[in-house]
Amino acid sequence: MTTQSAPTTTAAGKYRFRPGLIVAWTLLFIGGIIMITPLLFMFSTSLKTAGQVYDLRLIPAAPTFDNYIRVLSDGRFVRWFLNSSLIAVVVTASCLFFDSLVAYTLAKFDFAGRKLIFLAILSTLMIPTEMLVIPWYLMSSKLGWLDSYWGIMFPGMMTAFGVFLMRQFFETVPNDFLEAARVDGLNEFQIWWKIAMPLVTPALSALAIFTFLGNWTAFFWPLIVTTDKDLYTLPVGLSSFAVEQSIQWEMIMTGAAIATIPTLLIFLFFQRYIVRGVMLGGVKG
Amino acid sequence: MLLNQTAAGAVQKPRAWDWLSISTKQIVWAWTFLAVPMLFFTVVRFYPTAEAFYLSLTDWDFLRPANFVGLENYQTLLTDPVFWQVFRNTFAYLLIGTPISIVLSFVIAYYLDRIEFGHAFIRALYFLPFLTTAAAMAWVWRWFYQPPPIGVINSLLGAFGIGAQPFLRSVDQALPAIMVTAIWAGLGFQIIIFLAGLRAIPATYHEAARVDGLGEFTILRKITLPLLKPTTVFLVVFSSIGFLRIFDQVYNMTSNDPGGPLNTTKPLVLMIYQTAFSSYQMGYAAAQTVVLFLILFAISMGQLWILRSR
After folding, report:
1. CA–CA separation, A220 vs B258, rounded Å?
2. Cα separation, B259 vs A239, whole angstroms
3. What part of A 112-131 touches B (C-beta under 8 Å)?
């Protein structure tokens, strides 16, 4: 647990041990517990009956999964869960493929207009999604994309952030490798897919984390483009469910827990990659 | 899929293809790879951007055809008291939320960087909220802010003998209450980025400074903070943009009266949402999105300017 943080220097090399560190450690630990308190209460309450909600003890007196059974049994949450999974997976796959293809082309090919295209793509980072939703909505209603998976997904299928991030990594791939593959008779698509892509896997995993998380938690556009409850994503579905339940907090907490559990599980399994990926994406991107 | 087809098509004509020079082949490949993405960026990013600007100059309401009205929407906006209230709210989120979250995350990262025992575990505690869904956690916080005996925070305050606070029901407390939620959700990301920045500073700098007899505070002020400037600028901009675009938390925490009480929590994006998708005043909403864009543009330019004048 202690030495998982890989980065360049260890704390020991940089600082001397001082008793003040024990105070700092204690304060940081208390702060950390406060940070996860909302999550603890959410899970705790999701295991309580309606009568126990007012009892604010963190460990439920008689924990029960009844709320989960009730929330999941009418099938809506299952549906929303599958919708969100499908959308997040497809959009992430598309971004990994297209963003890195564009990034590779811009980093490794020599052709007129290369800089211009890069700047044009980069400039879209300045445009907030909120500015585009009205034209997207108009476009979706004209083309019949309202209330469809494609309607929810299409704005995110490629991102300027991904192109920008991946380009920086493809630039570090040595040209000799690509030239050697060319001599071996691979075509340009194969060179990208078989030679260049495996060399940038850390960047790809960073991009995958950001894209998946962004789409899993996305709220604004899915809220706008869907009115059919069967097509809601988990956050939008949860929001409508919570309004409907009004003061049944144990049910709302159960719904919130169902929306939160997948990303927390992924984090527990891939903690190192995720922290490293966020550092990579945040610093380079 | 489309890419494979065009690529295969080019290969099927070996004779014409073989005549091409290597650099010409490269150009053909490059444009083959870029064809679909360029189409995407044109249709889904560039054209809608231009359309948003155009729509902001019309009275389009989704039913009747749009009429060009010039700057009328902007004039309406400037005389709309709700807009000014929303403008103040948005900047309250931004100007209070950003400094608090930056200072908090820096202090936490600064000390976390020195800790070896349980480092990854404590880091994980701070990072976990970043992985949650804002819409879901908004409901957890909403429950926290309920009056006693339901609300956790009020029950806690009661235990210390402090009277019940109205939180989300109060025109003064609702905005800060929502802001706390947003700071909480973003803190983990900022801490991780600050940690990466701190780790990138070579240990030799600190050792040299210590040999010269500098105290920890002087090292922080003269070495760490200046070297951390690019990271800090990035996070200030990232965080400002986040607060400027706040929506999920406000929408979910005030769903019985979105942006209430009395519009005191309503941010610009929620106003855009209501203008466009509740009252279908698309032209007027487009003008509001242009205002959002201009603010974002100014912040981004500010970032470039600060980093250049280094």
Report:
1. 14
2. 15
3. 112, 114, 117, 120-121, 124, 126-131
Look at residues B201, B253, B251 and name the one whose alpha carbon lies nearest to residue B231: B201
Q: Per residue in A108-161, pLDDT tens?
A: 999 889 999 999 999 998 899 999 999 999 999 999 999 999 999 999 999 999
On whether any CB of chain A is under 8 Å from the CB of B26, the answer is yes
> Residues of B with CB below 8 A from A243's CB?
255
Determine contact, residues A144/A231, Cβ cutoff 8 Å. no
Over the stretch B261-310, which tens digit does the pLDDT of each residue have? 999 999 999 999 999 999 999 999 999 999 999 999 998 888 888 877 64
Partner residue opposite B113 with nearest CB, options A11, A45, A98? A11
- Decide if B112 contacts A28 (C-beta within 8 A): yes
Q: Which two tokens stand for residue B77?
A: 């906006």
Q: Name all contacts of B290-297 with Cβ < 8 Å and 24+ positions apart.
A: B290/A131, B290/B52, B290/B53, B290/B56, B291/B77, B292/A128, B292/A130, B292/A131, B292/B244, B292/B245, B292/B268, B293/A126, B293/A127, B293/A128, B293/A131, B293/B52, B295/B244, B296/A126, B296/A128, B296/B241, B296/B244, B297/A126
**Which of B30, B40, B127 lies nearest to residue A275, judging by beta carbons?**
B127
pLDDT score recorded for residue B309 = 62
Cα–Cα distance, B114 to A10 (Å, whole number)? 9
Mean of the per-residue pLDDT values of chain A: 89
Q: Give the C-alpha separation, A170 to A166, whole Å.
A: 6
* pLDDT tens digit sequence for A70-86: 999 988 999 999 999 99
Residue of chain B whose Cα is closest to the Cα of A98: B37
User: Quick one: which of B271, B140, B126 has its CA closest to B188?
Assistant: B126
| A24/B143 Cβ within 8 A | no
Q: Which residues pair with B58 in a beta bridge?
A: B68
Q: How distant, in Å, are the alpha carbons of A226, B32, B129, B199, B246 from that of B185?
A: 26, 42, 5, 23, 12
**Chain A residues whose beta carbon lies within 8 Å of the beta carbon of residue B150:** 53-54, 247, 249
**pTM for the predicted model, two decimal places:** 0.89
List the single best residue of B90, B117, B133, B297 to mutate versus A (max A Cβ within 10 A). Answer: B133
DSSP bridge pairs for B68 = B58
- Minimal Cβ distance to A256: which of B139, B292, B300: B139
What's the one-letter identity of residue A177?
A: F
Alpha-helical regions (H) of chain A: 11-14, 20-46, 66-73, 76-108, 114-123, 129-143, 149-153, 160-170, 175-183, 188-190, 197-199, 201-216, 220-225, 234-245, 249-284
* Euclidean distance between CA atoms A183 and B18, whole angstroms: 15
Mutating which of A4, A14, A243 best tests the B interface, going by the most B Cβ atoms within 10 A? A14
Query: Lowest mean pLDDT: which of A49-58, A232-241, B205-214?
Result: A49-58
